[in-house]
Design goal:
Number of strands: 13
Largest sheet: 7 strands, mixed
Number of domains: 2
Order of helices and strands: HEHHEHEHEEHEEEHHHEEHEEEH
CATH class of the largest domain: Alpha Beta
Helix content: 25-40%
Radius of gyration: 20 Å
Strand content: 5-15%
CATH superfamily of the largest domain: Type I PLP-dependent aspartate aminotransferase-like (Major domain)
Mean pLDDT: 96
CATH architecture of the largest domain: 3-Layer(aba) Sandwich
Length: 351
């Protein structure tokens, strides 16, 4: 602690991201990055970018990028918000919709940034328990609250809610904002964006980091009815008017427009994920059926933390969480077929 910190800083427990080692070349299966590079159209857009524009501020509304997202999802421009990664969009959403008298609610196993945001903004938070199989029972969300947020598929469990289940949640809680965090939706799920025009309390948040291979460029977006987007704009413009830089605007636009490449990458990840699932089961793992670009897997005859450490020692990084409900599991990102084969071969050696 420092005498110069504000009172709130002394109370913070920051989010801990997946390890990004600099001292060794690992097979990196711990941060759910896309194994494939950005679209060739993104590379072309960057190569042909007018560097002279860097002396100018970017469009504060990132109109070209927002329009490309609107076109893809067949929404209006005023239904799209963009930010510096989906984490920033989430942070603005907490401030815009959840800083009220009643608590917010999220699953007890979920994206670990949610309690961090709640603490940062002094928002009371309550958890509801996921089921024994890690699924979410919509009817179990009974708290008197001002908002609900959940990832779909959930992180790190990969459990998925069908659109009809999201519709039920929105109907049961029609008087509060429901945020569906869809960082992994493109790997086998159906987006709740189809429900946006039906429900005025729904905000869907997505990212360019996973399925569009732009984790290093930092672009996230939200889709909702215009009144929700206006709330986000008011918060954004009270914090940073220019969160999306000139290069990110043109690269993100190109990524959205190259639908063929996007779908091809997702299909490859899904195919490799399903292969990895079978291989892990053959090695004695219990695997949660996944619709994300990762697998939550439990070594049935070995200690999960020891397997994690042994893999790390042998040059393969996966993610281990000490949370008691998932402490027997490893979260394994899906990478190239070659790197997943390396994972399987390494497991065969160390188990």
């Amino acid at each position: 602690m420092s005498q110069f910190w504000s009172d709130i800083v002394n109370t913070l427990t920051p989010y801990v991201p997946g390890e990004q080692p600099q001292n060794r070349d690992y097979v990196k299966l711990n941060t759910n990055e896309n194994p494939f590079g950005p679209s060739p159209k993104v590379i072309d857009a960057i190569d042909n970018f007018d560097r002279n524009l860097l002396k100018r501020y970017p469009d504060p509304q990132a109109t070209l990028l927002r329009q490309s997202i609107a076109d893809y999802y067949q929404m209006d421009l005023n239904q799209i918000f963009v930010g510096n990664g989906s984490d920033e969009v989430l942070a603005h959403s907490f401030f815009a919709f959840f800083k009220k008298a009643k608590p917010i609610v999220f699953p007890d196993i979920t994206y670990s940034f949610y309690p961090v945001y709640a603490n940062l903004y002094n928002i009371e938070a309550q958890e509801f328990s996921v089921e024994k199989d890690f699924s979410i029972d919509i009817k179990s969300i009974t708290q008197d609250c001002d908002g609900i947020i959940l990832p779909n598929p959930n992180a790190p469990t990969s459990k998925y809610l069908e659109p009809d289940q999201i519709r039920e949640l929105l109907t049961l809680h029609a008087n509060k904002v429901v945020i569906v965090d869809e960082a992994y939706i493109d790997f086998g799920g159906e987006s709740a964006v189809s429900l946006v025009n039906e429900f005025d309390n729904l905000l869907v948040i997505q990212t360019f980091s996973k399925s569009r291979s732009l984790a290093g460029l930092r672009i996230g977006f939200a889709i909702g009815q215009a009144h929700l987007i206006e709330g986000l704009q008011r918060v954004k413009n009270s914090f940073n008017s220019y969160p999306i830089d000139q290069l990110a605007i043109v690269a993100g636009q190109a990524a959205m427009q190259d639908v063929t490449y996007f779908k091809s990458c997702c299909e490859h990840v899904i195919k490799t994920r399903d292969w990895t699932h079978k291989e892990l089961e053959a090695l004695g793992f219990e695997c949660i059926k996944s619709k994300a670009n990762f697998i939550l897997a439990k070594p049935l005859k070995h200690d999960a933390e020891k397997v994690y450490l042994d893999l790390r020692e042998n040059g393969v990084l996966v993610r281990y969480f000490k949370n008691s409900k998932i402490s027997e599991f490893l979260r394994i990102s899906i990478d190239t077929q070659e790197n997943m084969q390396t994972l399987i071969d390494t497991l065969k050696r160390i188990l």
